[in-house]
Amino acid sequence: GQRGTKLEVTIQGNSLANPREIVFFRPGIRAVDFQPAKSIPRVNIAHGSALTEEMCCTFEISPNCPLGEHPFRLLTATELTCIGTFHVSPFPVVDEEEAGYDPVNDTRETAQPVNADVTVRGTISGGTHGDRDLYRVDIKAGERLSVEVLAARIADQHYGQSEFDLAARILDAQGRVVAANDDNSLRLQDPVISYKAPHDGPYYVEVSRSIFDPHPVVYCAHIGKYARPLAAYPPGGQAGVRHTIAFLGDALGAYQRTGVLPSATGDFFYFGGGKHAAPSPTPLRLRISPYANVLEDQSAAETRVPQLPVALNGIIDDRSDIDLWRFSAKKGERWHVRIFAAALGSPIDAMVRLLPIGEDGRPGEAELSVDDSPLPHHDIFGHAFQSGGGLPEAIDPSFIWEPKRDGDYALEIRDTSGAGGPLGVYRVEIEPPRTVVQTLLASATFDWTESTRVTGLAVPRGNRWTIDLTMPQGQWNALTGEFDLIAKGLPAGVRLVTPRVKAGATRWPIQLVADAAAAPAGAVCTLEARPTDAAIAVETRCQQNVPFLNHPGGSALGMVRTDRYVVGVTDPAPFSLDIQQPAIALVRGGELTMPVRITRHAGFNGAVEIRCGGLDRSISTPPPMVVPPEQNEAVLELGADANAPLETMPFYVIGGTVRDDLDSFLGTGHVWVSSEIVALNIAQPYLELAAQPESIRRGERKPFTWTVRHHTPFEGEAHVTLLGLPKGVGVVGLAPVLTRDSTSVSFDLAATDEALLGQVNGLTCLVSVPVGEQQIVQRTGRGALRIDPAKETK
Hints:
about 800 residues, five-stranded mixed sheet, nine-stranded mixed sheet, mainly beta
């Protein structure tokens, strides 16, 4: 939709009943007048599933609404939906007049007339006839005709294939192709054209498939006289400083703009525009850093850099061009070197080498050479594409460099793809590694589909909801001490309750608690890491990445990225969960029972599915457990591996309502709550048992003795059971017992004539240790027993 307008929007999906509010991640749009759907179409999606619900509302787009993508979530009476997107255009928006398979605008003679500077919402229909859409626009000689088609970038389908790979062409009045584009470095699979008209007359914009696919695909085509640069030089600058930037690749030639860059560092999406020019409908991505710019000296063999840190800016202007930058560095320094090229839409595939300068003034052997980089080095986490890539950042080098000696170095930039040219811009940011805490909501469900059970932040009034936050480590300094997580922007009546985060944690629970009087509402929030040592300066980043078009075989890839989270307060849940702080530790090799109490509200008698919250992989938890109607208790069995870390872990339990038509895998359509967070202490076992290899003959009876090593004193008697005996071998008499003073324990074994001959490994002991009124159950020891034939008799 166009900014400054109102329009009716329909939203299709599941679990859309009782809509309350649409929460946008960015300002500028307000959703009002929620209405039930006029019809309820069934939309089939992957794996036999379908979208069966629809609702309507009005979007009020403010006149100064930021252009581009606006992610949102719908808050209903019971949940927050998965993420959706809406795009804001600077131009009036019209709809394609073709409906269904009727080829209304497939020829020049039937092309749909549109004004310049317009956004067309269209559909390339399915079927086998090969739909193409033509739009007629009048352009005068010397004017610019720019065309941008958005298909992959506006898709919110998780599963998508080549139907989202569209192509665009411009035809003159005689039907000759005067400009065309399929793929490009700026927008990947979405075509971009900027064309200077040589004469007056009608021109025709054609949108069609690049590859035949029978599935329909929705697109938006921006058609007009707006400027459409393909690159900027320099592609960034220093925060808060006045810069002149040249914009390259536009049909009417390069042009410059001068202004003060924003004070916030990081990515800056520039749409252009001003008093005398319309903005571009989609932006160029620029970089803003706290460090001064140094521009390539194209008249010299190398560009001298006065000092580090710095931001270097250059152009690989032909396939053989190699740029050299010279600066001084000291041994033992640590520098984060990051190249921005493909990520900014540049056509080049940059490679970087660092070469020490010898006494003769010439570069020596490369100390470091880096081409492509894994995506986490680019601060993008929590996604997985089938090919392991899919984002242009993957081919931009990023690394930590520690010089091996004092002196001058040459930083060499070259293009490995041979795509250098006037648009081959790049930027190198060299700075000391920062101390960063990255918080991430990352779904680990099938194909990385979004799961409201795993990452949703809807909390019922008067209840709790807890999820695990991921804190991945990238190319920065790790925060070595403990810290608290502080939430900013939560809805009124909601508070964050989470244990202090231990040093080095990469996964940690966050719990939202809503007061009983909290109003049903949604809000955009962020998290801040606050070190216990106030002298430590730390940067906190919030991130959630939701992949779309992520189906095997798909040729288009997309992803919605957000730097904040949406929290919603829903109606009261029909039940609540409680667990008690364990009075005893879970020992290595041991087991611990965890009772769960269900409190049912307002006559609720339905089944409840119980799951354990995230724990270290060394802690075993039971699979999801369904507590039947009218039962109010469940018992969870936890176990610790022999190598479980000796530490205190946060532990919680979640529960959800049960539906026959929707499972709880993705969480949609269920009401979720959690217990409080308790401390689960992992400790050394009370004792350890060990045994030497033993043997027994068929028909023989003999003791099997294990030595005892005590770690923690206990009172009373511990009962011991021997596990893993083969068929035909058993323990005779009562199970032995241990006390705090025992140095050994012996089992009286008897082997029958049916005992299996040979070596049996992996025997172990189950020990039940009394601690207060409870029993600590642990497994310990590994023994071996050989069964021999019966002794021959004369």
